Amino acid sequence: MAGVALVNAVIFGVYGETRRHIPDPNSLSSCFVSGALAGLAQSPICSPIELAKTRMQLRTSSNETQFSGPMDCLRYTYKQEGYRGVFRGLNVTLLREIPSYGTYFLTYEVLTRTPDNAPVSTAYMLLAGGLAGTASWTVSYPLDLVKSRIQADGRRYAGLVDCLKQTVTNEGYSCLYRGLSSTIIRAFPTNAVTLTVVTWIFRLFGQHNDSVAATNQGEKVVKTMESVGEISGTREPFLEKWNNFLTSMPERMAIHRLPYSTSTNELKLERLVNKENERRTKEEVKHGREEGEKRRVSREDVENLEELCEKKVERTVVKTVNTVSMALA
Ligand SMILES: NC(=[NH2+])NCCC[C@H](N)C(=O)O
């Protein structure tokens, strides 16, 4: 359970962080690359977890010691085989996770892109999420099979290539896809729910994408700045914050896909910063403030704040996804 939580935190964390720092966050290749990096980052965590799962599943009660849980199994493996044993199959896990998470996020992005950026329906999101999971497992399944065999009994094989050779020679190519249907039966609903929930959180908590009406985006940034007291200098009372949240719901609902992106529409942002500064000047004239007391918003303020908001949203995403995956596990 803790492992699942960590894996999700790493996946969505790394995916978001990469897309934020990649030159063209909205291109399809950047979705693939960010997904691939997320897959790479989570492999060292998921590899020992899967090793424990595989070994526990293969234990037969009569002749072998039973493990009380995955940690017990890993401790035993460490005593018997050292770190090499615990991380057995990590290389194949990496080879499986890099393309599969790339495919996973790319498929979801491709399927939820609409020409006029109209939001997709929840039913469609569920379908896209399910298909993303299915596609990711289909491309990586033979490697998953090899990985499980190596993890179950590493001493039988000299490595990935040897395991592949032995498998194909003894059982034919078709065996590389053995068990794929059961995997998809699990992966379709799990990933349908996961990606839909993630998208909904982004919609509700308003992380915008540059394809969304740029005015909304800029205004949201200034609104957020107001709400955290950056602009007015005071903290907005909770009720007011909640009311603002509710009134902006229709606008928030207009966001779709996984909207990781910081590329705010430059012109609009500039305009908003100017507008806010004009407003401040007027206030200052009205209140006859001294030169030294004058405060101005800068582009950096807006950008820093935007990043801060994205991080907050991301933490919510991770928490919710963890809850969902635990409920489904
Ligand atoms: N083969 C993969 N790792 N695909 C990526 C999707 C993974 C997803 N968490 C699942 O378990 O279905």
Question: Your description of this structure?
Answer:
Mean pLDDT is 78; it is low at 208-219, 224-235 and 253-264. This protein has 12 helices and no strands. Helix 5 (122-152) crosses helix 6 (160-171) and helix 7 packs antiparallel against helix 12 (299-328). The chain is mainly alpha-helical. It binds arginine. Arginine is lined by residues 97, 100-101, 104, 133, 136-137, 140, 187, 190-191.
**Overall helicity:** over 70%
Hetero groups bound? Answer: arginine
Radius of gyration, in angstroms, nearest whole number: 25 Å
Number of helices: 12
Task: Give a short summary of the structure.
Helices cover 73% and strands 0% of the residues. It has helices spanning 2-21, 28-58, 70-86, 90-112, 122-152, 160-171, 180-205, 214-227, 238-247, 249-253, 266-287, 299-328.
Keywords:
329 residues; mainly alpha; 12 helices; elongated; binds arginine
Set out the fold topology:
Elements: H1 2-21, H2 28-58, H3 70-86, H4 90-112, H5 122-152, H6 160-171, H7 180-205, H8 214-227, H9 238-247, H10 249-253, H11 266-287, H12 299-328
Helix pairs in contact: 1-2, 1-12, 2-3, 2-4, 4-5, 5-6, 5-7, 7-12, 8-11, 8-12
Keywords: Membrane, Mitochondrion, Repeat, Transmembrane, Transmembrane helix, Transport
Region (Disordered): 278-300
Solcar repeats: 26-114, 120-204
